[in-house]
Amino acid sequence: MSLHAAPLAEIPTRTAELVRIILPKGNTITQLRDCFGAVYSDDQFRSLYPTRGQPAYAPWRLALVTIFQFLEHLSDRQAAEHVRTRLDWKYALALELEDLGFHYSVLSEFRARLVAADQGEMLFNTFLQACRDHHLLKPGRQRTDSTHVLARMRMLNRLELIGETLRVALDDLATVIPETLCQVIPAAWWARYGRRVEEGSLPHSEPSRSELAQTIGEDGFFLMTSLLNDTALNPLLDRPALAMLRQVWLQQFQRELSGLGVTQIKLRAQEDTPPAESRRCTPHEAEARASIKRHTRWQGYKVHFTECCDEAGPRLITHVKTTTATQPDVQVNDTIQTELIARALRPETHLVNAGYLSGDGLVESQARGIDLVGPLRESSSWQSRTADAFDLSAFVIQWEQRQVTCPAGQVSTMWSERSLSWTRRPAVQVKFSASSCRNCSLQSRCTRAKSGVRTLGFPDRVTFEFSGHPNHRNTDAGRHRLPAFTGFTTAQLVFSPTIQILRPSLCRT
Predict the structure, then answer these.
(1) What are the tens digits of pLDDT across the range 214-234?
(2) 6: in domain
(3) pTM for the complete prediction?
(4) Which of 4, 133, 217, 497 has the smallest count of CB within 10 Å of its CB?
(5) Has residue 248 got a pLDDT over 50?
(6) What pLDDT is stored for residue 376 in this prediction?
(7) Are 489 and 458 in a shared domain?
(8) Range of the domain at 104
(9) How far apart are CA 359 and CA 467, in angstroms?
């Protein structure tokens, strides 16, 4: 298809007259058209289409249909049906009453063009700019929260994962070297990997499942070895499906050399597999990860929504960031603020929940001219959860003397500063002498370390004092406290039509 851009059409007279009769006060769709106009133009999408070919359906209309579709939670079939039958949609799209619209598959093709051209956020950014032009965007006070996004797959157990990974690799090789593959793989593989590997077709007894896992592991290593030993086939190992096979086999299997010089293949123990942030959970989506947050378990991604929340203005989503499911919220806060500033949407006050808040984040936000507001995280130490135990608040920090005094009056003997690997900011580690701790009558309320010696860790002075740390009251410096904020859920983001309109597709960018 090719794009033959045309000037934006005026709303047909008959369509406008009938809408005014049936909807004299209008509705959300007609009001959006009256307030914002067409919003999009064909010229914005010129790079998505070739210069020759059958004329494409007007992309500015498809963009508006996509917005309306998300506004009303419609499938592609339903959205295409609404274009044919809804008067308010015909009004917004400037269509004649007799217009039959388009086939529903045009919508998925349009979204695919956006993603392929890395223009997934074009619709969102253009609509946001329209709100700015109409003075509806007031970014002074904004808030951020995250929710989970499911991958386009069902959850796989370990046996399904390894079996399906090998099947996908074989299917990929069958498209490039079908004849060679038939000569390399044993005939039994056709029955074993000929169809999708699912739990219903797997054995139920534990010995049989272990035997099948052993067989799949050996088959995978046999395939990779066969490709590795043939120089003409070596480049195939770099194909995504084969790269996934290597990664999954490295994470799920181990090879041991027996006393007879025979290599044995064993499925790794669950505790011996890599952590969730690097462990593959499906061969169909390389970036999907398994994660857990409180009572929610999922495989997929995490999306962070930021919206302006000034009482005088509408609630408009200003930023969307999709990350891996295992990335902590606190690591995304810097990116969100940086991108908001780059788009001239710097918040004066940025409201977050405890997952986004850290002492480093408070300092960096202040340097950007942003007040980061949220609840401080509760300490996870056993001392903070025990009524008569001594947590960090029971110790007095003398920054100038580089020492700490414990509740028993003992002074620390070691003070060291180091940079945390993930924040690159300094932190302090303090240690008391073994003799004073082991002979102390308060030891049981202070430490459970096997060595019997209490150690403390806390951020550098600037971060510690600025963050209003709960343990800051006993330091020899001033105080800074944050306003209370209880946090909010993603469900609370969706309470006005405007937010639904601005919600972008959750495609990975």
Answers:
(1) 999 999 999 999 998 888 888
(2) no
(3) 0.72
(4) 133
(5) yes
(6) 67
(7) no
(8) 13-119
(9) 5
